[in-house]
Each structure stands twice: as C-alpha cells, then as structure tokens.
Amino acid sequence: MAIDAWGSGEHESLCLTGQPHEAGLLKLDINKAVTGLGWLPKYAAVEAIKKTLAWYKNYEMDKTSARRLVEQDIYNYLNA
Q1: Is the C-alpha dihedral spanning 26, 49, 17, 11 positive or negative?
Q2: Cα–Cα distance, 80 to 4 (Å, whole number)
Q3: pLDDT, one tens digit for every residue, the chain (80 residues)
Q4: With contact defined as beta carbons under 8 Å apart, do 11 and 3 qualify?
Q5: Residue-wise pLDDT tens digits, 54-63
Q6: What is the DSSP string of 61-72?
C-alpha cells in the first residue's frame, strides 16, 4: 500500500543481526480504543497510509514546509 501511495518503488527486506526481535507479522487492532475509550478512526487504514506518504512526498520532493504540512493535516483531520 505504501509503494502504491508513493507512486513507485519496491519492497526490500533487511536482515540486521544483533537487533531486538521484531515480529514477522504485525497485526494492529483498535478494539481496545473503540471499546475502552469510545474512539473511532476518521481515516481508514489505506487513506491514513496515503496521507502519511503524501506528507513525506511533499516534504522531501516538493520541499514544502514541514510546519505548513502539519498545520494542513491537523486542519483536514479536525474537519474530516
């Protein structure tokens, strides 16, 4: 999904020895936030990935101000 959101690239797995163990598969679950806090996401996972990668792309490739990008994202999130 990240490669699609960026528009190009390829996945590369790195095997670093001497590093803390990282799970081969990470399963994220928002059930505790939903049931315990009454929280609901404003963005689906795909949309959140697209927005995250758009931020990096605008910052790295278009040299947009990080402050401007963050302020724009906060505004968009609060108005979603």
Answers
A1: positive
A2: 23
A3: 888 888 888 878 777 788 887 777 888 899 999 999 999 999 998 999 999 999 999 998 888 899 999 999 999 999 98
A4: yes
A5: 999 999 888 8
A6: TS---HHHHHHH
Based on C-alpha coordinates, what's the Rg of the chain? 16
Q: Where are the domains of the chain?
A: 30-80
Q: Which two tokens stand for residue 20?
A: 């803390």
Token pair listed for 11: 């996945």
Give the Cα separation of 53 and 15 in Å (integer): 24
* Cα–Cα distance measured from residue 71 to residue 80, given in angstroms and rounded to the nearest whole number: 14
Q: Which residue reads 């505790």 in tokens? A: 32
Q: Are 16 and 5 in contact (CB under 8 A)?
A: no
